[in-house]
Automatic annotation (TrEMBL):
Pfam families: CN_hydrolase. SUPFAM superfamilies: Carbon-nitrogen hydrolase (SSF56317). This is Putative amidohydrolase. Residues 5-290 form the CN hydrolase domain. It comes from Eilatimonas milleporae.
Length: 334
């Protein structure tokens, strides 16, 4: 593992609900960050192809049989990645080409259910290691299923073990403990936007885990959301009308900022290495001292000398969970 690395966050607006066009934007940002020396590059949660902002800002989005919500969910499902598909293969090729570890937030479809899934791509790897968000928060449960322990993992890479959690998972104490025990050398914290309390959680995670944290947020205006949906070429529908109804703090103008970004990079001691960037697109980068984690362990190692296994024990079930399991019994007589 190198002593120092450069990490970046691509804080661009996705082409909302348009997966192929968003991938084009992402490739551009990743190549620019890699050309400037970044070997770890991340996006906000579910950046491909955009956080479902209608849940937070559009009136009536949670009503039963809402035509707009149904139209948007259908578009989102059609622009979600699936295990091993060409979109994930394309991201793996991008990691291979640039030599950078990529941690990319997506919508993933498995059957007919969507998941908030982050994929980690390691150069020379196999099309992404997934982590599915364990508990969608509040209105997010309208669109996402819940992940299981099989994706609560960290990834081996040339720059160390890379782990990540998504949004409010950073307020799940046992999930944090599990990831600290996974031996992270660097952690990616993915948020829709890095608000004040999200920054508090990210800095706390860095200090508690003794690991650098890449806190990634997204920048989106209302016009980005509406124009992205229109780019799908779908005739004007209730989905577009629901997006047009979005108002942020009572402001429904096209330039209203829905997600303000706030991306930042934090050292293993909790210090901010790059000041949060708000209200604009940017590639946010910083150089990280990877040796600081060992220095921090002198006083705090929550999975080592600061644990009390004689008092506390955490069991993490990493078995995949399926609603239906098919099996057969061989009834032949010997």
């Amino acid at each position: 593992m190198p002593d120092r690395i450069t990490a970046s966050i691509v804080q661009y607006a996705p082409v909302f609900l348009n997966l192929p066009a968003s991938l084009d934007r992402l490739e551009d940002g990743v190549r620019k960050a890699a050309a400037d020396g970044s070997v770890l590059i991340a996006t906000a949660e579910c950046w491909l192809p955009g956080y479902p902002v209608w849940l937070d800002f559009a009136p009536d989005a949670a009503l039963w049989n809402n035509d707009g919500a149904q139209a948007l969910f259908t578009a989102l499902a059609g622009n979600a990645v699936t295990h091993g598909d060409r979109h994930l293969t394309r991201l793996q090729a991008l990691s291979d080409e640039t030599g950078a570890v990529l941690v990319i937030g997506t919508h993933e479809r498995d059957g007919k259910t969507l998941y908030n899934t982050s994929f980690t791509f390691v150069p020379g790897g196999q099309a992404g290691l997934p982590h599915r968000k364990l508990v969608p928060t509040y209105t997010e449960r309208l669109v996402w299923g819940r992940g299981d322990g099989s994706t609560l993992v960290s990834a081996d890479s040339p720059i160390g073990r890379i782990g990540n959690l998504i949004c409010w998972e950073h307020w799940m104490p046992l999930a944090r403990a599990a990831m600290h025990a996974a031996g992270e050398d660097c952690h990616v914290a993915q948020w829709p936007v890095v608000k004040d309390m999200h920054l508090v959680a990210s800095r706390h995670y860095a200090f508690e885990g003794g690991t650098p944290v890449i806190a990634a947020g997204s920048y989106m205006r209302k016009s980005d959301v509406v124009d992205g949906y229109r780019s799908l070429g779908t005739p004007a529908t209730a989905g577009e009308a629901l997006l047009e109804s979005i108002a942020v703090n009572g402001v429904g103008e096209p330039d209203a900022v829905i997600h303000a970004g706030g991306s930042t990079i934090i050292g293993a001691d909790g210090d901010i290495l790059s000041e949060p960037v708000f209200n604009r697109e940017a590639i946010v980068s910083a150089e990280i001292d990877m040796t600081l984690a060992q220095t921090q362990a002198l006083t705090l190692d929550t999975d080592g000398h600061y644990s009390r296994p004689d008092i506390f024990e955490l069991h993490v079930d990493t078995a995949p969970r399926h609603g239906v399991v098919f099996s057969s019994v061989d009834t032949k007589q010997v």
